[in-house]
Amino acid sequence: MARFGARRCRATGCLRCVPGPRCDSEVAASAAASATSACDHDLLERLRRGAEHAIVRRSRISEANPMPTQELVILVPLAIKSVIGALRGCMEEAAGVSLRPVHDLNPAIAERVFSGRRGDIGLSNPQYVRQLTDAGYVDPAAHRAFGRVRLAVARKHGTGGPVLTGAEEIVALLTSAQSIGYTGAGTSGRTFLGVLGRLGIVADVGPRCRPMGGGAPVAAVAAGEIELAVAPLTTILSSPGVEPGAIFPDALETHIDMSVFVTRTAAAEAMAVLEFLTSPALDAQLAAAGVSRFELG
Question: What superkingdom does the record give (predicted)?
C-alpha cells in the first residue's frame, strides 16, 4: 500500500503530500490542515482528497479482514447467577469464544440495553425482552423462552421442618414472622408484594417486610439479621447458610419467567449460546437447579 509523507514544496514553500515511509491518513490530514493561503486551491484539494482516500482504504481493509471476536458479554439476572455460572464453560465451548458475565436485576438488564451499553446475549423477563424487540434492539427470531423459577421463602439453614407448599401454610408462616426481607427493585420483590395483596395480608405482613438490594435478603437470613427472605428458589438453593422454608404454589401465579435473547449488534457466535441455552438436552440439569422450561405466550 502506498504511504504518504509531508514535504516542503520548492515552488511555494508549502507542505505537500508525496510518497514516503512515514505517513498515513493522519499525516495526510495534518498536512492539509497546515497548508497556508500561499498554496493554491488545487493543492489544498489534492491534500484533502488524499486524506479521505487513506481513511476509505483503512475502512475497506477493516471490512475485508474483520477482527476476530474476543469475547461475548452475557447479561445474567441475579436470580439465576449460579445456574448460568455453572454452564459457562459449556457455553464458551459452544460459541468458540470466552464469555464475560454481567449480573444485575431483571429490569436493569433491559435498561442496560436501552441505554446503549454492551450486551451480546441476555436473559430477562419476557415482558422486558418484548420491549427491546419492539424498539428494534432484538430480532424477534433471537428471543426464546429459557426457564421458569418459582418464588420461595428462605429460612436459616438447620431450622428444620417441612418445606411448606400450601397457600394457607405460607400465609401462617408469613404472618407469624418477625422480619421478612425481599428485593425492593427486582421482579421477585414486586411479585411478592403482589401476592400479599391477593392473599389479603398486606396490613398484617407489610410492616414487617424490608426492601433490600439484590442478593441481600438471603444473605441477611444467613447472618441472622432477619428471620425470613422471599427470593427465587434458584437463589435460595445456591446460597450458603439458608434453606427453603416454603415454595409458593403455582396456583398463586408467583413464578418468574426468564427468556434469552441476542442483540442485533452481537457477533454471530452469540447465536450458538442461545441455541445451547434452549436445547432440550439441558432440561434435566436446569430442573435440578430449580429451573423448569416454559413456552412464550
Answer: Bacteria
The pLDDT value recorded for residue 160 is 86
**Residue 228 · residue 241 · CB < 8 Å:** no
Cell 452481537 locates to 266
Fill in the DSSP letter of residue 97: S
Q: What is residue 126's predicted lDDT score, i.e. its pLDDT?
A: 98
Instruction: Dump strand ranges (E) for 176-287.
Output: 180-183, 209-212, 228-232, 242-247, 256-263
Which of the listed CATH numbers 3.40.190.10, 3.40.710.10, 3.40.50.1370, 3.40.50.720 matches domain 71-148+257-292?
A: 3.40.190.10
Q: Residue type at 101?
A: P
Q: Where along the chain do the CATH 3.40.190.10 domains lie?
A: 71-148+257-292, 151-252
Residue for cell digits 434492539? 137
The H or E element that residue 175 is part of is: helix 167-176
Q: In what order do the strands lie in the sheet with 71-77?
A: 98-104, 71-77, 121-124, 256-263, 138-149, 291-292
CATH number of 151-252: 3.40.190.10
Residue 79's nearest CA partner among 106, 100, 98 is: 106
| Low-confidence spans in the chain with pLDDT less than 50 | 1-41, 43-44, 46-48, 50-65, 67
Q: Could you report the per-residue pLDDT of 21-58, keeping only the tens digit for each?
A: 333 333 333 333 333 333 444 544 544 454 444 434 43
**Sheet with 242-247, side-by-side order of all strands:** 209-212, 180-183, 228-232, 151-156, 242-247
Please, are residues 57 and 38 in contact by the beta-carbon 8 Å criterion?
A: no
| pLDDT at res. 42 | 52
